[in-house]
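User: Predict the complex.
Assistant: Input components as received:
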Amino acid sequence: MNGSLRRIAAATWARSLEFVRDRSSLGWNLVFPILMVIGLAFVFSGPGQPLFKVAVIAPAEAKLDTSLHPFLGTPQVQFYREDSRDIALPKVQRHRIDLLIDFTAQPPQYWVNEQSPKGQLLERLIAGSGGEPLVRQATTGKEIRYVDWVAPGVLGMNMMFACLFGIGYVIVRYRKNGYLKRLNATPLRAFEFLLAQLLSRLALILIVNIFVFAACRMLLGLRMEGSYLDLLIVVALGAFSMIAMGLVVSARLSSEELAGGILNVISTPMMVVCGVFFSMDGSPRALQIAADFLPLTHLLSAARAIMLDGAGLSQLGYPLAVMGAMSAVYLTLGAALFKWRQD
Amino acid sequence: MNSQTPITSVPVLEVRDLVKHFKQVKAVNGLSFEVRAGTCFGLLGPNGAGKSTTIEMCEGLLTPTSGSIRYRGEPLGPRYRERVGIQFQSTALQDHLTVIENLRFFSALYPVRRPIDELIALCRLEEFLDRDSKKLSGGQRQRLLLAIALVNDPELLFLDEPTTGLDPQARRNFWDLVTDIKARGKTIVLTTHYMEEAYLLCDEIVIVDAGQIIARGVPSQLLAEHFNDSMLEVPAAEAHKIAATGLAGVAKGETVEIQTADVNGAVAALLAGGVSLAQLRIRPRTLEDLFIELTGRGLRE
């Protein structure tokens, strides 16, 4: 075997053994994300939202009240404005909203999902409200529950922590206790060492998350429209880019406290702006731009597109390219900044 | 065991005017020495003398501020690390790996490897091969680290304070190992602040203080050059009687030390003065004495 490959393989194997034998941390890595997804499913499945939600497309000057149509005076229904049918109709199909009324069409129409009991109830209310008759348009689509939407977010967030802290802490600890100095006295090169750490982490994270995903799918019946292979590729690339990000943080530090602080500074915003728990649609532009620079955003958008909409890799060129570019930049930076010993 | 290896063979390592300055500290100030093939070369000195800095430059891990280090007449190249073996003063290993797994891992990093079975036998690791390396005793751990330093069958071996912190028994075992390794023709560079260790293992030593060499040579010859006397140690309780004999005694804690070239005469004088010889110790002068003689202070002060 080529010397460099042999060294990378040996270091990858050694690190993987260390991780797998650390039973408590392995167990935690498996159990925690499953508990988290189940917990969130409970928290967010209860009531608290208006009984019915109806999107309305109307001329800009029109007010959303009974002057437009008597149905808009119905109590217990939240009416809100949407700009285009392209955006609003998928929401009807996914049961995110219960009905769509389009007053810009001639004659005015309403769209109902035939698989939605709430939509069918609202249909009867329209009929009974009087006023100008609205033309019925039917659509179909299975409900996307919040848990289907949030589960990729939670799993992705958990993976982000495993990537950043898993690699960051370990390398900083190795530097602090002098193990890196010992390795530096061997022919092992920095790039080989870092690649070995990365590959070992990546393999373990993928294996752990396959189990976690399977468990969540069984326990919660998660929606999965696309291909498992596509999802695996997207997740692998996303995890790779986040591990590489951890390499940059750990390139020089020899204090676990400082490393922990910096990793928190990176991971907390990712948790907030990358759309883990809530969609970032409609949030301030600046936040969305910031989110674009974080790998988790692209991992989540690609994973959700596959799981919820059945998208294929060919439709995910943008997130894949961004994650690939981030991986390359972080890995190069991490190797360039890397130091074997503490100052 | 100062085997009288002739100091005429080719130098394996040649160090010239080595200087290393850190931001605040001038750690090494112009050291020059040569290490001959097949010998054990000792760098002696107190903590902070610059021994570890010097050995790390020789290992190729630190870049000197100025000066040169040559290995077999050539500057240390990128392949140097494949040819030398290094044991640090203290090294952490990866958690959760057994002794044999650590050996296999380090072995895989080198292009030329010594069979692992041989290493196990040489360093006497048989009994704890499958133990987590974290759970080893101090002596076992140093033996594993020595085996790791030997995985590439190096011709030049660096040992940086290998027995610091070991109990006397473990230290003796380690010295036996090093003697075995030396007998196989390896060249060894050793740092220590144990003078006994240097005396037993080294063919040639330099004594370093404050980044400079203050003495060099074969240990037995160095002592012969500086001392032609022996040291008598008598319990401090006898101090007043010693004073009456006219012998010059120096109080050192629990004992009084009498330095003399005429041991017979001194003992006779002590007997005549009624000094109890029940706990008398007569010892030859040591490298420790030499260090005190040269610097005016003890090694561990």
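The radius of gyration of chain B is 22 Å.
Let me know if you want any component modeled separately.
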